[in-house]
Specification:
221 residues, alpha+beta, Arc Repressor Mutant, subunit A, Elongation Factor Tu (Ef-tu), domain 3, 12 strands, 36% helix
Length: 221
């Protein structure tokens, strides 16, 4: 996505388009972007085609609302700026290990609505559907154990018609400059040397990682 498209999304959000459809003309958008109405119109068309906004065309103009995909894009931008301006002097620990494939269950659990709503509100992002799994080097396993003693960010369990989903806790982290969170379920079948990470990014793809690659994770305590 181009910087201009990000600016268009931002202007729509500032106008209230995150919550409800708002009336925005191409002329008005052009004035905000300091560009031509034709350019503004093209950018809105592209954003609609790519699923970042939804437009309702009317006889007297258009109503625009940001979709969930657009909200995720803005949240990703927010996380980048947050990492620039927040205080990096807080306590953190570095954990290192090798990337492994998980059991494939992470996608199912983290995409449950009861978890996703909490991730958005408490972690500040909606995770990519899947977890990054790291087998820690032996000298870092004891540091992983210390996370069990920390409070972390609590993600409450919940009950659906079919089953009960347990609580877990998270610790914000960064993997090679990309934001994420270590997730520790209250009940897990993974041994203590396995670190599970969620992120708004597909970390394997974004960082070009494959099984066996060395990975360093900064975990904020």
């Amino acid at each position: 996505m181009s910087e201009l498209d990000i600016r268009v999304l931002k202007e729509i959000a500032l106008s209230g388009g995150m919550k409800e459809p708002v009336r925005i003309s191409c002329q008005n958008m052009a004035e905000k972007l300091k560009t031509s109405p034709q350019t503004a119109a093209r950018r809105l068309q592209v954003l609609e085609q790519e699923g970042f906004i939804k437009r309702i065309l009317k006889g007297d103009g258009q109503l625009i609302m940001i979709t969930d995909r657009g909200k995720d894009m803005l949240m990703s931008e927010y996380m980048d700026y947050k990492s620039i301006f927040e205080d990096r002097k807080r306590d953190s620990a570095i954990l290192r290990g090798k990337l492994i494939s998980g059991l494939g269950e992470g996608k199912y659990y983290i995409t449950r609505k009861g978890y996703m709503n909490q991730f958005r509100g408490k972690l500040g992002f909606i995770p990519y559907p899947g977890t990054l799994n790291i087998k820690l080097e032996i000298e870092y396993v004891h540091l992983r154990g210390k996370l069990d003693e920390k409070q972390g960010i609590k993600i409450d369990g919940f009950v659906t018609e079919n089953r009960t989903f347990g609580e877990c806790k998270c610790f914000l982290c960064r993997v090679d400059g990309k934001d994420g969170a270590v997730i520790i379920p209250s009940r897990t079948h993974y041994p203590s040397e396995i670190l599970e990470i969620i992120s708004p990014y597909n970390l394997r793809k974004e960082l070009g990682l494959s099984d066996g690659d060395e990975v360093s994770v900064e975990v904020f305590l």
